[in-house]
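RETRY 2/3 - previous attempt timed out on the joint model. Re-submitting the same 422-residue input unchanged.
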Amino acid sequence: LTVCVLGLGYIGLPTAAVIARTGARVLGVDVSPQVVETVNSGRVHIEEVDLDGLVSGVVARGKLTASTQIAPADVFVIAVPTPFDADHAPDIGYVLKAATTVATVLKPGDTVILESTSPVGTTEKVRDFLAQLRPDLRLPGSEGADVAIAYCPERVLPGRILVELIDNDRVIGGITPRCARKALHFYRRFVRGACVTTTAHAAEMTKLTENAFRDVNIAFANELSRVADTLGVDVWEVIRLANRHPRVNILQPGPGVGGHCIAVDPWFLVHGDPANTPLIRTAREVNDAKSDHVVAQASALIEATRGPVACLGLAFKANIDDFRESPALKVAAALARRFGDRIRVVEPYAAALPSAFDGTGATLTDLDTAIETCATMIVLVDHDLFRSVPLDERAGKRVYDTRGIWPDQPRAPAPAPLRLAS
Ligand code: SAJ
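RETRY 2/3 succeeded.
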């Protein structure tokens, strides 16, 4: 079996490597010559647990090669980004560009699988696009179709990608049932989880639904944290207690929602049906507004104090080195613009401060120095390293813990008791 994976990013590269490990010959295609060169030398350009060892192994055995040029294959997996534009409208330009590339080598018997998160209807658009470019082929939907096209979203969690690529269930949506079966056959090579077939439309909407579900649930937690602030209640305690109910499972509040998926994908659903998505849209707005609220709260705290302030964390979530679309980075950079050299950023996963801090005067420091020198600490990421700081090292500090990692931290004096209406 020969497989071509288009896009060697956070999903494409691990997927290519896992398929190559099954013994298939895999060609990874990327527009970036640097990425191609890095992979061909057996190295990786992204941080992901165990990925370096896997890639160097399959490259050394000649099972995985990378190129900027496509070549004929039996299966094509498209794993390119689908961003949105300024109006939150999905941009499937990279997907269509990848399809154009595939069209140059597509032949009867091949399977084309789209894995990129995509608005509902995109897989059919890919089919229509390929039909225009290759009128000589019989594409699904036409009599005696000899090419299969399917949608199979990735659903792996950064930090656990190699485990989840194998263990998670997969939803495989075919343009026709035959396409789904053909793609199913492919995924069974490396997936241990269940592989469930459906239509392309249902699979596309399923992916968006999963991330919108998480976004709405995080928004609920973020809204609760604001209410709890107003009422002078500890939101972490309330959530812990409420979650003792057998049918309640509230997620964790934080400084907002980051990453490339959860803050993006819900918009694809909203865009698909704006009139019927007030909840999903509002959840997005609640989560985005949470970052602004955290900036305001932290600013008030910093203004009331003197001396250096530690901002703990820049990553978009715990224990990863990914700073793109990170609410922690957004908050810390806003504080740096406002408070300049008082801001000391601690981020064990950063070698230098990102460009958002250029010209602000803020500096990167290590945790020990921050504990020694900063009387004020703003927790923005729940890295294990921060979680493990014991209470005696935090005693007497003014702490704004947006992630709830230090439940034993003495709280600032509660606001005056509420006057209840009689
Ligand atoms: N977050 C909270 N509170 C929580 C959980 C998360 O504030 O209780 C924040 C995180 O700190 C982070 C953001 O949400 O800023 C997203 O983190 P995440 O761990 O929820 O998700 P991602 O973006 O790493 O990966 C998600 C996953 N989707 C779901 O869990 C439904 C993953 O399975 C998907 O494959 C991935 O999106 C994707 O590629 O779509």
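Residues 234-401 form a domain with the Rossmann fold fold (CATH 3.40.50.720). Closing ticket.
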